[in-house]
Each structure stands twice: as C-alpha cells, then as structure tokens.
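forwarding from the other thread:

> can someone predict this with FE2/S2 (inorganic) cluster?

sure thing
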Amino acid sequence: MTGDPIICGCNDVHRSTIEHAIKEKGLKTTDQINKEFHLDKACGSCTEDVQQVLKEVKEN
Ligand code: FES
C-alpha cells in the first residue's frame, strides 16, 4: 500500500489515522481498533484491511 488510503470508507478513516492510534494508544487487536473508530457499526467490509494495517504496524 502506498500513500494514505482510506481504510474505512463508511467512517472516512485513513490508514495514517489507524497507524497513529495503534502506536499512540497501544491498540493491539482489531476489536480495539473497531471500537476506537466505530468501524463495527457500519458495513464491516474494512475488517481485513484493518487487520492488515495492524499486522504491518506490528512488524515495523
Ligand atoms: S468500510 Fe469500514 S465499516 Fe464500512
């Protein structure tokens, strides 16, 4: 992934915003991220992308 794509179109949440929250707030699971950004309240199609961002941040 390059740039700063929108991860969750329903809530207009960009990748950088999620990355920042993972680092600053110590979020460790997709559940925590979903709650933080209310991602589970809408379509839920971004779940895999959220998992991918989480994985990549952990690896770096
Ligand atoms: S794209 Fe994230 S809930 Fe719809």
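The chain has a mean pLDDT of 93. thats all i got for now
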